[in-house]
Write a structure and sequence with these properties.
The protein has 21 helices and 29 strands. By secondary structure, it is an alpha/beta fold. About 2% of the residues have low confidence. It has a 9-stranded mixed beta sheet with strand order 20-19-21-22-17-23-24-25-26, with helices on both faces. Strands 4, 5, 6, 7, 8, 9 and 10 form a 7-stranded mixed beta sheet that branches. A 4-stranded parallel beta sheet has the order 12-11-13-14. Helix 3 packs across helix 4.
Length: 691
């Protein structure tokens, strides 16, 4: 059989096995949704299905149609190849063949691949190292005579911590007698004695004889191939550390002490890249653990360089390097424990991760000097919306009253401490120490911003702004420069005024080229979050809502929604000619349980004033309406959903904790939004279909 598209499909159940292999735990069964492996997917919107027209399994991504296709397309996306390019497609077939161990490649294709990968510089077979280098190969007509291990042989293995169970598991036997045939055709015999015991490492079609105290220590018999890997069949499907060691006894000793290990025929053996690559999917750390003599050290150094792309590590044992003290078996024979080896392994990681640990040290929580609990800076009815070191978001559509609401917050931040003012229902911590209050506006004209600032100053019961209140109109500055100006000016005012009380950025989207630029969005929000922590202040970001009215706009909105401590939504209530403030997210508790507030224009006062909370009935209507919208979205592509998956979906879509999500499920049941499946009480369905 040759390697081609049809042979691949025939050997992989029409491509299903390929999807299973590369998706791993993400995939459970055909038709069940899962999250995309190609990007940070917030919802499980990917499926595998059987395409009857082409008779193959395909991958469909409802979140991004760009990633939909058959198994060959799927593999091409993983490895950055193109199905439309002939050479790339051949590589895709080879990857599938190697990864799944299909062995479909014929000899001609194998030769072509080797010539291609080595750019024509193919070594002659005579110059390649052989598995038999350094070892004798024997012929025999008679079966090898085996017997039970005797007491002295059990003691020999026991000094390395190797038990009888491990010997049986790895098919190691005690050899009574071996009769071989010499080059001249004459027979010779090797027997086992107490002084010179003989053991056999038994493979599928070969036996490797091991005589630990004889001049001829190793002898191969049977069909031994270049792909000799001792211990491979005993490896688990997944693991943490895999040691590649120098010999079979070392493998047995490591496994006896609770580690995973394999070895090749010798420390100088060629290690296939495809094998290491496959093991890299199964183990986190592939670590060379060779002898500490000159050969072992040189081999580890060469292999870590040759296989650098697979991040092979090498661990040097603290042994003298002489014949009685050079390998991991000797390490355990000298009464070192598995914990001792793990300590050496951790020290190796400490050296490799030295720079990382240095950075993480500065981020580590010191329980002897716990951080001071931040006082709430912005609250609504005693519910904390924002604390120093966090981001708060104020969202709403154009004309909803966002700017007026921000004016109420800013006036509370700059007012003299001894007076009470109307901050539109929101409580702002007094700025007693007169630290900087900064406003950066990217949307309004200079005149409009000045006009709004006069209302803020007047609301704060002052005739002119305090020196530590700074407002900037950035409309005329290019987007690429705005963020840098904000960061540098924040730093300047932090030192000038002994700290920053509050920062408002009215129009955060105007700091980016596009709100759907995921990389820039993540970078921006991370930087703002970092600045909020460094300056111990609240950064209030203003952002528009997505058309659905439940989420913030674009990738930028998604990132803000994840990181913000609180999100407030401002809506226009045309019936009452006022604006309504609703909580979309609070750090603790449920945003739907925070009362809705109203504010509107007062002709008498000549400014916007607080109009009180909306009625409990209005709050219940809001809660019912929004949970119905969320439920319709969750059930959009399914009829039933389990209780566990439902509360997880609510946690993800509304960014609430488990306790809150479970209370929402109870509310939706009590208000006729969802009901239990009559045939399965552990599942829910919508009472009415989405409209």
């Amino acid at each position: 059989m040759s390697l081609n598209k049809d042979s691949i499909l025939q050997a992989t159940n029409n491509g299903l096995s390929i999807f299973k292999h590369f998706l791993g735990s993400k995939f459970s069964k055909v038709g069940k949704s899962f999250k995309s492996p190609f990007y940070q997917d917030s919802k499980a919107s990917c499926y595998l299905y059987f395409d009857k027209k082409s008779s193959i399994y395909k991958f469909k991504d409802f979140g991004d149609a760009e990633y939909s296709g058959d198994c060959f397309f799927f593999v091409s996306k993983i490895f950055g190849l193109s199905c439309d390019d002939r050479q790339d497609f051949i590589k895709i077939l080879e990857i599938i063949d190697n990864e799944l161990g299909l062995c479909l490649e014929d000899n001609d294709q194998k030769v072509n691949r080797i010539v291609r990968d080595t750019k024509g510089e193919v070594q002659r077979a005579s110059s390649l190292p052989s598995i038999h280098d350094g070892f004798e190969t024997a012929k025999t007509k008679l079966p090898i005579q085996t017997r039970e291990f005797n007491e002295s042989e059990i003691l020999f293995w026991a000094q390395y911590g190797i038990t009888r169970d491990i010997l049986d598991r790895f098919n190691v036997t005690a050899i009574e007698r071996f009769i071989g045939i010499g080059k001249d055709g004459s027979e010779y015999a090797l027997g086992s004695t107490d002084e010179q015991p003989m053991f056999g490492y038994n493979g599928r079609r070969y036996t490797k004889l091991y005589r630990p105290f004889s001049k001829l220590r190793f002898l191969y018999t049977g069909e031994v191939t270049e792909s000799y890997v001792f211990g491979f069949d005993q490896l688990p499907i997944r693991g943490d550390v895999l040691f590649i060691t120098g010999g079979e006894k070392d493998v047995l000793s490591l496994v006896s002490h609770g580690f995973h290990a394999i070895c090749f025929n010798s420390e100088t053996a060629h290690i296939p890249k495809n094998l290491i690559r496959g093991l890299g999917y199964r183990f986190k750390h592939i670590t060379l653990l060779y002898d500490v003599d000159q050969t072992g050290k040189a081999s580890m150094e060469k292999l870590t360089k040759d296989l650098k792309e697979y991040q092979l590590k090498s661990l040097l044992l603290p042994l003298s390097g002489d014949k009685t003290e050079k390998d991991i078996s000797d390490f355990f024979r000298l009464n070192h424990s598995a914990d001792d080896l793990m300590m050496l392994f951790r020290e190796m990681l400490d050296h490799l991760y030295e720079d990382t640990i240095a950075v993480m040290k500065s981020c580590e929580i010191d329980f002897d000097n716990p951080p001071k609990a931040p006082e709430p800076l912005i609250t609504i009815n005693d519910v904390t919306i924002g604390t120093p070191g966090n981001i708060v978001c104020v969202a709403g559509s154009e004309g909803s009253g966002k700017t007026n609401y921000l004016g109420g917050i800013l006036s509370g931040a700059i007012k003299p401490g001894e007076i009470e003012i109307d901050t539109l229902g929101t409580t702002i911590k007094e700025n007693i120490e007169q630290r900087a209050v900064l406003l950066y506006d990217t949307e309004q004209s200079e005149f409009q911003l000045y006009k709004n600032l006069t209302y803020i100053i007047r609301r704060s019961s002052q005739e002119k702004p305090p020196s530590w209140f700074k407002a900037f109109c950035l409309v005329g500055i290019s987007r690429s420069e705005r963020m840098n100006l904000i960061l540098e000016s924040m730093d300047r005012f932090f030192y000038e005024h002994g700290g920053i009380h509050m920062v408002v950025i009215d129009g955060i989207a105007d700091l980016l080229g596009a709100v759907n630029d995921e990389e820039s969005s993540v970078k921006l929000v991370e930087e703002l979050f970092r600045m909020a922590a460094i300056y111990n202040t609240v950064i209030i970001c203003v952002l528009h809502l997505a058309p659905s009215g439940m989420k913030l706009r674009g990738h930028l909105g998604s990132e803000v929604q994840r990181k913000a401590a609180g999100i407030l939504l401002i809506e226009k209530d045309d019936n009452n000619n006022c604006s309504v403030v609703k909580a979309l997210k609070v750090r603790d508790g449920s945003p739907l349980d925070v009362p809705m507030m109203q504010f509107g224009w007062s002709k008498t006062e000549g400014r916007h004033v607080y109009l009180g909370e909306k009625s409990k009935e209005d709050s219940e209507i809001r809660k019912t309406s929004e949970l119905k919208d969320v439920a319709n979205e969750i059930f959009k592509n399914r009829v039933y959903i389990s209780n566990q998956n439902l509360y997880k979906a609510l946690m993800e879509s509304m960014d609430v904790k488990e306790r809150t999500a479970r209370s929402y499920i109870k509310f939706m049941r009590e208000n006729g939004i969802i009901e239990k499946n009559p045939s399965n009480v552990l599942e829910y369905c919508l009472v009415t279909m989405p409209f």
